[in-house]
Amino acid sequence: MAAMRGGGLYFQWEWPAGLEFGIKSLDLDLRILNDPTTTDVLFFSTQLGCGTPDLFHVFYFGVQSNVQGKGKGLVFSRFGTLDLANAKTAGTPDSWSVSSSTEGGFVGVRRLYAWTSHAYDLRLSATNDDSVGRWFGFWVIDRDTGLQTYVGALRFPKDSKEQYPGVMTQGFGSFIEHANSVRSAADVPFWDLAVGRPNANGSSFATRAHWWYAPPADAWQNSDIWAADEIIRARMGAGTQRAHAAGQLIYHTATRDATPSGTVKTCSSSLRIRRRACCRETPLQASRQRLSAPRGTR
Description:
This protein has one domain (about 1-298): Sandwich (Jelly Rolls). The strands form two sheets. Strands 1, 3, 4, 5, 7, 8, 12, 13, 17 and 20 form a ten-stranded antiparallel sheet that branches. The chain is mainly beta. The longest helix has 10 residues, at about 270-280. The model is unreliable at about 260-295 (pLDDT under 50). It is built from two helices and 20 strands. The relative contact order is 0.24.
């Protein structure tokens, strides 16, 4: 059997009208339910766009099990530039910046962080404007202690009309992937996550979530994604059994906590068809076509 890569789980959120380019801060509750012992690259990432109606760039932020071969850590990257003047690290010995011409060109900041089976808040926030554009910083916050770990900041340019960029709601989504080649899907390390409802600007919550499996969906059956009490649950690797089809969640309560319970809401296969039809051309979907390099190299 040839070596294979992939096995991703993907989800995307819808937001209230009026936020199209108006997100200046974002909080996402991530609960890691097990601590995989592996040198493989497991990656939870949120990917979206930042800009104006005339100019935007795709970026992503998240947690990795092995960042460029250095161990567990945090990543924040944007496409469309190779210039490290657009990146600021945390200024600590365990942080660094990257610039690469792969995938169309990107810059990013990295920081080692010994995450474990625990609850975290992933926070993105605008920090300051300058003559070139707007800087956004990335933090990870321990939900128990409140300790904030700063990863670094990236700058996104103004457009030709001198409009400063904001984070976009269109194409706003996350993915969970294993980035190494394996002989069998059973060789993928087990990872169990719960993801709460995203919150923008401290007051606006996502209204709906959609999820689906990496194509071809039948190649990696040891992955599962579903909704439980308005929390997205996701598992992949090892002996995971797929029990749920692609589907959607309509949020009803104003909460973003990702503490799972035993209540499971199943999703019908008809939602999978509707999901693929309505989101075929979003910036997230288009940009995912070129995100094929192992995340440890990015």
